[in-house]
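Researcher: Please generate the 3D structure of the following complex. Treat every line as part of one assembly.
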Amino acid sequence: MSTALLEVRGLWKEFGDLTVLADVSLSLRTHEVMAVVGPSGSGKSTLLRCINLLEPIDDGQILLDGVDISDPEFEADQARRRIGIVFQSFNLFPHLTVLDNITLAPRKVLKTSEEEAQITAQHLLDRFDLADKRDEYPDRLSGGQQQRVAIIRALAMSPALMLFDEPTSALDPELVGEVLEVIKTLATEGMTMIVVSHELGFARDVADAVLFMDEGRVVEKGPPDQVLVDPTTDRARRFLSLMAESG
Amino acid sequence: MTEAEASRRGPGISPGRARRLAYQRGQRRRSLLIGAVSTLVVFGVVTLVVVNSPGWPTVKESFFSWEDFKASFPEILTGFGRNIRIFLIAEVFILIVALIVAIIRSTRSPLLTPLRLAATAYVDLIRGIPTIILLFLLGFGVPALRLQGVPNSQEFWAITTLVISYSAYVAEVYRAGIESVHESQTAAARSLGLSSAQSMRWVVLPQAVRRVIPPLLNDFVALQKDSALLALLGVQEAFRRAQIYVAGTFNFTAYLAAALLFLIFTIPLARFTDYLIRRQRERVAGTSL
Ligand SMILES: Nc1ncnc2c1ncn2[C@@H]1O[C@H](COP(=O)(O)OP(=O)(O)OP(=O)(O)O)[C@@H](O)[C@H]1O
Ligand SMILES: [Mg+2]
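Model: Done. Output below.
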């Protein structure tokens, strides 16, 4: 068998009559970074939510380390704690300080002692230049800072896999850089990631593979220099030229 | 805010700023004055009309007798202690029962469907029955059954009625709070591996409860007043004591004394609720979210 950390096989997802994911397959090895691009409504967010078991799937398999986590018999919470996800809208817990946002899941899910959870959180805050914000509430932070805290919150669970759903598209342009920088750092450190992003330059820089989706299907899959520069399908070519025009 | 701000800027208040400050101060003084005058006028007219009405001397005698006030007050005050005790006991149970009902109604787990149906039926049923009827059913009905091991005290059943009745309303207040927490919060919690119960406990409920504190306080005020309903079961609370006094003297001042006690308790609570609502609104306005 392969050494894939994550393998998605023939995934189908429907909302009522609407087929949102149709026979999607992908595979990701440890330390690999995959970028997912595609027009709005193509099912990118849904794909990430399915992988993280936030949405039940209608057919197919999702294997994490060879174990089918999408099996209805499988304890979903077990899988979720090993997969971190960062949302477009941060979704920090507004009633908790930065520190408590980060330590909540380690304490309640992994039963880490409060002291230990705080030490881990402090390390992460130091590393990503947010140490002075540890006692602030999220609404006192800039969007970029909030998103970096959201990334740290996911990292505090020591996930095997990180998912990013357009992590910078809710940010003012001048704040995009600091978040991309964090993701880049994670990539160089060998974190396995799937990143949905409209930042094509960034995708080319960090991704080992790019998935182009349209209408719930994987239209192209391959190294960034091929999919983002010289795509084989018309659909991808049109999308890329549109993206190039808009900036 | 304006003066403190100005002094923080140091000694150099620019002429423009000084003019603005003076203008704002004048505006504030003017609206205060208008408020005071209009209040005085309205109250003055009402007082004049009442005092000059043909029935006033009789009403004055039977509702505003200082003698009767003094005579009835100590008894009523002890009775009012009972109202407060009933209120406090009932409130604790209401907050707990209502929370459980609200959580049951808010979960989506198919396992809990029977419970959820029961909770919905409870809320619908209770909100449709006047509290006073419920009070009679439980307060006279259950003790009459003379069941083994079931308390017979009417105060017990009176408090139980208040708990059953108010929990249905308070559950709906809680539920509105729970539903107002965006589902992306639950998604974020679940994605970190928290179970659905843990997400509810640590992420949804703390936010929900904070949002519903003002409406909960409104229900507290109503509950405190409704503790007077217990007089109907013969519980010796303030209103019952007043009734007894009135029956003996045919002077109604005792009711006024009881009303005054309720007011002393509820008005500060109402002011506090308003303050919380205002503060919450300011906080929401102050954040970008
Ligand atoms: N909970 C839901 N119920 C019904 N339809 C949904 C739901 N979530 C997503 N959809 C639909 O599924 C399709 C794919 O949505 P999705 O959010 O995955 O797209 P996307 O590629 O992430 O788009 P975007 O770039 O705009 O974020 C859309 O047509 C959307 O309307
Ligand atoms: Mg999306």
